[in-house]
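Researcher: Sequence of Cellobiose phosphorylase follows. Predict its structure.
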Amino acid sequence: MNKVKDKSKRGWEFTGDKGDFRLQKADRSSYLYFPLVNEGGMMSSVSPKLHGQTTSGHNTFLTPPISVEDLHNSRASRNFWIHVEGKGTWSAAGNSARQNADFYTEDAEEVELEAGFLWHRVSRSSKELNLSSQITSFVPCGNDKVELMKVVLTNNGETQQTLTPTAAIPLYARSADDLRDHRHVTSLLHRIFTSDYGIEVQPALSFDERGHRVNHTSYGVFGVEGDGNTPEGFFPVQEEFIGEGGSLDWPEAVVVNRAPDIIAGTGVHREGYEALGGIRFTTVTLMPGESVSYVVIMAIEDQRMDLEALIGKYGSSSSFDRLLEENKAFWSEKVNTVQFKTGDADADQWMKWVTLQPVLRRLYGNSFLPYHDYGRGGRGWRDLWQDCLALLIMEPAEVRNLLFDNYAGVRIDGSNATIIGQHPGEFIADRNNIPRVWMDHGAWPFMTTMLYLNHSGDMEFLNQEQGYFRDTFMSRCRERDHSLDLKEGSVLRTASGDIYKGTILEHILLQNLVPFFNVGEHNNIKLEGADWNDGLDMGADRGESVTFTSFYGSNLMDISLLLRDLKERTGQKIIEVAEEITILLDTMSEKVDYESISGKIALLNRFYASAPNKVSGVKASLDIDQVADDLAQKAEWIFNHLRQNEWVESEEGGGWFNGYYNNDGERVEGEFAEGVRMTLTGQVFPLMGHAASEDQVPQIIAAVERNLLDEKIGYRLNSQFGGIQQNLGRAFGFAFGHKENGAMFSHMTIMYGNALYKRGYVNEGRKVLESLYQLSTDFEVSHMYPGIPEYINESGRGMYTYLTGSASWLLLTMVTEVFGIKGKLGDLLLEPKLVGPQFDAEGKASIKTMFADRELEVLYKNTEGSAYGEYQISSVLINGAQVTLQRVSEGVLIARAELTSLQAGQCHLIEVELVKGK
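Model: Prediction complete. Tokens:
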């Protein structure tokens, strides 16, 4: 990455070399929020004014569920009030009616935000009151569902000040479904308890989609002063705290400095009201320069709180400080699994935040952050596989089991489960009666598995047996199996009732063979419910996805090559598959004319009829070479078909691939009277795989630069189509330049860059990645913290931050393409594609990463300053010892055995000398 041309535009700045950053006047930017999370299921978000939410799942929100607009419109927040004797009322979080009124005046307060992995601190200073606050928030690592907040108040004046502090955090304590559905009625279920330290709410029942159940979950807000001093009392009922006509940003109890409603330790409880974690601390007098600290604990538990244990673990300033350092160390270790060192130290630190994002996606799923105000938690099918791309680099030890578990979601008709359970490998039968298939889903598992095989060399994985998912849907959701008894479980069975299992290779074949025959009237694979772009969801009848036809074609070719490698490396000559699947391997029996659409559909229907949500259990033994030949023939047919029939010739010279047909059977892309219609997706997959011929690549690049590049927001996902396109998808109902309709969608932009690197167009690929970096780090426009957003909208703002699969793709691209750390069926392939600015002043660039269960630091030395394309690898040293190079067309190979012989648990230095020459 290049340095941002004008650092003043960045807004935030890194404060060291560990990814910590600082932002002045953070409260002057809307829509900012920061994630706080742990492996135990606590999921929080916090804004510069301490808005946000705290939850452990869709049905267990401690604070009210919010959307991104609530960050600045809602009065509910993690507030901490100070009544200053003789001067009035002040919010240490900045959330008071008076402070909001002064926001755009000279009396506005000085605010500084600091943040790191994964902690958040806001410092605020009032010149009028000579008072400052520092509020630090984090979710402790571990399994406790706890969020901690430490407030430090300092007297900046020259005379003593008397302060009365009050924490005020709304306790919503129920399901997100109740936000507008029986909001008041569900408050009647609240049982509100007080103790020595705070307020606990355990609703009597839970009203949600699961029914009216007895509730056991408990929610609490507790507080201590310093190292364990108890509060004075509590305000447990929200309406009594704010007073008649009052509000959460100007509550009566604080403004008039009213005595607490309940004295600490009396055990008084209330029922049937909206609850508040209102904690009144003892009045304190601070001398000039003196400070006082408070710790606020927000907790969710599956039963009543063990308050003694909770306070013992978290209830002191010293415990807070110790746990904060533990938390910093935990997250730093996570992101430091991969480290980059280039000519731009800021870009290297920025990549640490990108590295964190796949972990956040694993923990949050696609929900529970302010922009991600949809879904009920968990991840979708595509997420399971794409998130594994980053895990292969960051947490490789976990990936094999995850991949194996994920294959249990495949149906025998080649589709897959779309309801994902809470635990790895858990898939749930349909409960909403929505029959839908995303046509791209079958393409991703093989791509991820191939990356795993290249990294591990674990060819035995292909022969491991796994079950299949079964629910009432069959024939790719065209039919329903009304005879199915789900009491038998959601697993595929044989005709005799036994659970059926097939190899991972069988699952891969099934997922890629079925789509080949599932074609529309132009002989491309049907679009069905949608493909990668969920917004293309209105072409189920006659729509076709040309772009994913090319992806499936490339998969078929690569599976063919893998089978030949499997035979060569292991001597395996036979593979076993369910006898029904042999119908799809038509060249081995009675070949179908692939030009015949009706012939393909007829064969597919024969397959569906042979496996109607169950199989015979009989397996066929097939010659591995014949299967490889079958797949290669199918792949070659797809490539020739696309090049001949889906290439769009441009009047300006060159051309590109049409990506789609709409529900009227019309070609979507091309040069029309009303303008050019082009999608970036339609170019990425032909480029990334084998479909685009070598002479088509530069033509595609020129067309993308001409039709999709916007200097203001980068590479658009599509050009302006005009109209809402009800024959294609809801995406075109969005305003142009927003989300899936013409925004810079990071996922596809990065995949485009990846594809260009793969094809050897390194400078062009780097330009694409560089544009994303520059856009994301231009804070004046993007208004986002370090990292990449899901997309950048028409005004240049970064949208849907943190939870985006594009982070996995950028990390993968940097490791495997830019730094060239690749696997080749277990061996290490070095194929660097670094360019001049990515080397430091000494001509060095390095990466730390895991390979073959060893931590490696690969240091490239380009002391001659050669440009990409001019240098080659001349020598390799491992820990100072010369390595005999095995040169291949891509670069050099280091045998896996060479690496596994190295001492485990240490970082090993691989020095790679680059010299001029080809």
